[in-house]
Design brief:
This protein has about 575 residues and is of the alpha/beta class. The protein has three domains: about 110-215, Alpha-Beta Complex (Glutamyl-tRNA Synthetase, domain 3); about 265-350 and about 470-565, Ribosomal Protein L25, Chain P, CATH 2.40.240; about 350-460, Ribosomal Protein L25, Chain P (Beta Barrel), CATH 2.40.240. The protein contains 13 helices and 29 strands.
Amino acid sequence: MNDKTTPATTNFIRQIIDADLSVGKNDSRVHTRFPPEPNGFLHIGHAKSICLNFGIARDYPGGLCNLRFDDTNPHKENVEFVDSIQADVRWLGFDWGERLFYASDYFADLYGFAVELVKAGKAYVCDLTADEIREHRGTLTEPGRESPYRNRTVDENLDLLERMKSGEFEDGARVLRAKIDMASPNMNMRDPTLYRIRHGVIHHQTGEEWCMYPMYDFTHPISDALEGITHSLCTLEFEDHRPLYDWVLDNISIGCHPRQIEFSRLNLQYTVMSKRKLTQLVDDGYVSDWDDPRMPTIAGLRRRGYTPASIRTFADRIGITKSDNSIEMGVLEACVREDLDTHAPRRMGVLHPLKLVIENYPDGQEEALSAMNHPKDESMGSRSIPFTREIFIDQADFRETANKKFKRLVSGGEVRLRNAYVIKCEQVIKDANGEVIELRCSYDPDTLGTNPEGRKVRGVIHWVSARHGVKAEVRLYDRLFSHPAPDSDKTVSSFTEHLNPDSLHTLTHAIVEPSLAAAGAGDRFQYEREGYFCVDSKESSSERLVFNRTVTLRDSWAKIEQQASK
Ligand code: ATP
Ligand code: MG
């Protein structure tokens, strides 16, 4: 299942676990969990957390990792998201076995613990409105004020809590709050809300059974403890919530106290990562769906042609730390480029076809030339490609005149056709507007697999037999945003203002070699000299082949920057 070739890199979390194990903590168990909220598709940031949590379980003897849906906001969640999350975690190469849980599995337990807190005088039902609660909370420099309902008796609280549960009160009428410290320097400790009332939503797991739902800060520590989690790994924004996590577990009768450890979130340049913003891109039609190949979602990356191994390598390469940073897209692209360079079979595809007639090649003749599927890996075998009098080359591989740096075809010049012969451009045919529409060439029959004597042919270009080539649609993607940090620019009213208007370029007249007609959804190839492509898993069919460009052969952004500095 997992890529054993990538050694797990150590990090400060693994060092904490090692230290815990060395003193025999948790009966020497290591048990993590990945707890997504099913309110959207997983993104590459989640992949970092998945690789961390499942990676630890994989690497420690007897290690376990649960997949737990943190489903306490039913109005934003649904089963489609639950299903997509499971599919994406599996696709990444991780397996939770039997350990699939829902926070909603614990709703009854959670209610029981709430009753315990009330009985111990550590929680109370508060009738303040949301605005009043906010106003009472104070600020970072001023202590909060106690709620007038803070000193209700245990009996009154028990009665009100029971009536909240049975549906007697409207949404927002009352909440259950922890009784901690309204003067705490940590705002999260100023009597945080534990339960709120929410009628009329049908929960994807519990239906209409509940009309009040527990808050994250109450649910999460208890879910972790009930599952016997030893190390609860989360992102840095929860650091300030850790005292509350610990408070909850210290004040109820639960025999397990997982250790919360925070690490920094992944931020990736030229994209956004929050599910709220990704939802907006989908809902407002800026992208076709959650799996649009420009999206930073796992589903989008998969459809774009990313491999699970490349994403795991990426997660390993960026590492786990406590410092916030923003990773260049080039780091992610390099990971998939390396993987595909090793594993993707080579093919020929012409993106902008220009017809080329080899005048001294007999009409009707056809040769089956052999081409290796990978120049460095013979085990990938070879295939046969048909050569004929009429072929297509790419428009970009011909110029009427050019300096010596242009190692492709020029008028009167020679070039090698990849896996075939050396040809010479004899005549250029143009239309009424002066556009080149056809090239007339000659070929040297003695140059198959050997160089011509006495002449140096420097360029090699790709081609496809006109008669055998298969029409294809090719989608070229660029970054979704033209700003490196679209959601942190305060000078615009919405991050969507930074969307790159040219993030998708569709070529409808590409011609690819005939072997590609049989390619199946998701198959990945290198089109020689062009980049890595995969068959679109949603819209490609035998009638209409659609390819997505995963990544260019080289870092084109580095090239652009180089050229700019010349
Ligand atoms: P978002 O803001 O995108 O909705 P979230 O943190 O609310 O993210 P959850 O579904 O609650 O999303 O996250 C599940 C787990 O994935 C959490 O442990 C969370 O910390 C982690 N996670 C989410 N985003 C990132 C990220 N960008 N980098 C690393 N881990 C992340
Ligand atoms: Mg969330």
